[in-house]
Amino acid sequence: MTIDWHTLPKDKADHKLNFRKQGEQIWLEVYAAEHAFPYSERTIHRVEINNLEPDSNYEFKVGEFTRVYSFRTMPTKNDRPIRFAAGGDTSHGEMFKKMNRAVMPYDPDFIVWGGDLAYANGDKENVGLWHQWFDGIKRDLITAEGRVVPIVLGIGNHDVINHHYPASETNINKGIGMPAFISKVKRGEMEEPTDEMRLAKAPFFYPLFAFPGQPGYGVLDFGDYLSLLILDSSHSNLISGTQTDWLKKQLANRTDIPHVIPVYHKPAYPSGRVEPGGKRIQFWSEEVLDNWIPLFEQYGVRVTFENDDHTYKRSLPLRNNAVHPNGIVYLGDGSWGVEKKKPKTPEEVWYLSKSAEENSAIITTLHGPHQHFLMINENGKIIDEYPETLKIVP
């Protein structure tokens, strides 16, 4: 478990974290590394605690602060239901608070968000939005008893300067230099970014979060039952090239994992930024479709989490860009805490099974080989379910 805490200059500098398994008497000590919160007076303290027992509760205290918090580790086997919440496009305001509070009654093991977090756009002038975002997490995602819900994060266009690597989304959408840009990408002639280039592109994202860290994408394995593939849909990396090569290796090494779930920002099958009939408007959706989707299909992915469009969507099962009974279902589309938008309907776009103008979180339950997804809005109302449970009417 990685634990971060932030301090201000007025706080007493203390790098110590005490922890113990719940029910035990002796507190153990670990000491944090520290680094600056970008463009802020805050300092980030970070520890990684290893050799914890699975499926157990631990208490901890940070620095000189007296409040006792706790966290829950994951089991090594999927012999109990695993439940987590998924979504994206969180923002930092009132809807963020409502959605956070709506998921907490489900007691999630963790939350995964696929990018567009504080909407600070990599701008140092927007550092206060990150403060609000973290304040919201501390306010809403800690239970009354002090259990802190862990968070897994990916990167989105509003987490970086100019939305995309290496081009500005504004210029691309206006068609400025688009043919030359596409040609270079397709020919593999675009420069692969370095760690320094990625950090310059996303000056908050990389220092603020331990995972995925550099190079901006990574895989998180839970025992032998779940692998989350956190991907960068061209925000501080190219979609094609090195990242796709890495993705193929990770998928090939996990063919015996029953739940392999990719999480990324730009959707291959968008519900908003798509023309009636199903033609994709954004270049990056085509890049995801061309580079990643064939690999997902080849290696047996069943569900992916997509974001970005500020709507709710569930696709039909898709394979080879057509409806197929054994295809992949694409869930999204990034409407956790942002202003919701009106999506295209299944009547307008062939690959949609359901869409709605709703803020949404995906409550995911995994048990053995089974997957279940319950979609709720900010009021806790169920807006969709996949697969649908049998309802018996007397």
From TrEMBL:
**What superkingdom does the record give?**
Bacteria
Q: Does the keyword Phosphoprotein apply?
A: no
Q: Domain Purple acid phosphatase N-terminal, which positions?
A: 1-73
The Calcineurin-like phosphoesterase domain is annotated at: 99-303
- Protein name per its UniProtKB record: Phosphatase
Task: Return the InterPro entries for the record.
Answer: Calcineurin-like_PHP (IPR004843), Metallo-depent_PP-like (IPR029052), PAPs-like (IPR039331), PAPs_N (IPR015914), Purple_acid_Pase-like_N (IPR008963)
MF terms in GO: acid phosphatase activity; metal ion binding
PANTHER family for this protein:
ACID PHOSPHATASE RELATED, PURPLE ACID PHOSPHATASE
Ordered alphabetically, the record's keywords are: Signal
